[in-house]
């Protein structure tokens, strides 16, 4: 499971969308290269995604 914090264009999203990487179209394409985007994500957006 991963959390999508950006859309396909790399723009930040309002909602954090959980994705199961085993599903078609949800594979990890690479790591986030925009550290400013990652640093702006509130930890609360990711709570509950790991279980």
Q: What's the layout of helices and strands?
A:
Layout: E1 2-6, E2 12-19, H1 35-39
Antiparallel strand pairs: 1-2
Tell me what you see in this structure.
The structure is a single chain. This protein is mainly beta and 51 residues long. It has 1 helix and 2 strands. It has a two-stranded antiparallel ribbon with strand order 1-2. It starts with a strand and ends in a 12-residue tail after the last helix. The model has no long low-confidence stretch (mean pLDDT 75).
Strand segment count = 2
Low-confidence segments: none
Overall geometry = globular
Q: Report strand %.
A: 25-35%
Short description:
The chain has one helix spanning 35-39; strands at 2-6, 12-19. With 51 residues, the protein is mainly β.
Main features:
51 residues; mainly beta; 10% helix
């Amino acid at each position: 499971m991963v959390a999508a914090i950006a859309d396909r264009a790399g723009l930040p999203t309002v909602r954090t969308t959980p994705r199961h990487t085993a599903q078609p179209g949800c594979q990890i394409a690479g790591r986030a290269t925009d550290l400013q985007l990652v640093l702006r994500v509130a930890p609360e957006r990711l709570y509950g995604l790991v279980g």
